[in-house]
Amino acid sequence: MIQWRPDVLGDGFEQLTFELGADDDPAFTDGKGSHVGDGDEQQRPRLVATLVRSLPTNRSLWQRIIGRARDFEDVDVLYVHGWSDYFFQTDLARFWTERGARFFALDLRRYGRSLRPGQTAGYVDDLEDYDVEIDFALAEMRASSQRNAGERKILLLGHSTGGLVLSLWASRHPGVADAVVLNSPWLELQLSTRGRQMIAPIVTLGAKLSPLEGIPQLDYGFYARAMREVGPDADVARINQEWRPEQSHPVHTGWLKAILAGHDLVYRGLNIDVPVCVLLSARSAIPARWSPELTRADSVLDVDGVARAALRLGPSVTIERIQGALHDVFVSAEEPRHDAYTRMERFAKGWRRAVE
Prior knowledge:
globular; alpha/beta; 10 helices
């Protein structure tokens, strides 16, 4: 029986674990789902996903006296994190719940709360595999809404790789979500479209032969340092470094193949049938050595390339460029962080009023 229980984020947060079956990680199988190696298959870690929720705060006395509804009281938000990441941003949840929305965040399989000993952190070889936990999450969100409360609107909120995952999902599932907000979504490879197209056949072949083959990374932990220096103190202080290490999880060819395939689909054009808001830093910075510049720019993605790719998401795309923002705009320094929340709120209010 599945049930909500207290979450590691403390008061106001609960979590629910979804069982997804036996782990088909290549570390435990022959790549086709068949178990290999010694030992009882029942001892393999179970594949799970974890849904975290934070429910709306009570309306203020003044709001109750005048009978004023908050802007998003009929909205459910579903957040999906990025690569080598998990949900820890309590300020982001609070932004939505203080305005009446129910906030949910999904730690995908093999990430964060859903990572089990022995599993290959973050590994997946097809981004469509995440449809299972997204569908589970949406089903639980619908089931847990109050009866006779009217139809609730769904706003998808994705960061980085989570932005790519949700963009592809929304395009494949028209008519389900009502709006999409993307926080620095990873919509194109940093090497540009041409670079991606050049390496894709090599990566695909490597993934077929050895999906867990490691790929060299140049991650010196500078992005994590930038977050510590300028991000919201409480959120940054509570980061679990096993779930979100200073230097990212190892990258494998099977996973990169899935990412490149997703990028190719974006390049060919998606058809997200609802308004999309893309929040991006105004500029990128190369993290070759530490510099204060890395606290005022996206040191992970090519933001100009992402902005161009975002125009292929659907017919209604708003792009917001935020001066001084980090890769995660909501853990930037105070001024750009406030700017990011202001722009997201402006988009969300405009969308919500337009569909009344």
